[in-house]
Design brief:
The chain is mainly β. The chain is 0% helix and 39% strand. Strands 1-2-3 form a three-stranded antiparallel beta sheet, with no helix packed on it. The radius of gyration is 16 Å and the shape is elongated.
Length: 59
Amino acid sequence: MERDLRYVRRWPFGVGARLGSGRYVATARYRLSDTFNAQANPAYVELPRWVVGLELGLF
């Protein structure tokens, strides 16, 4: 496992929301910060800012 990568921002931040009822929850997160800093290789593309998903409860 690799650790302390110099080209990745240490503290990413963003906003998120969850909305649901019972066993089902819809989630959405938006990252406000960049993933990579200025030391990153230009070949690395920025990761998607949006993550959307569905959570299912088991119990």
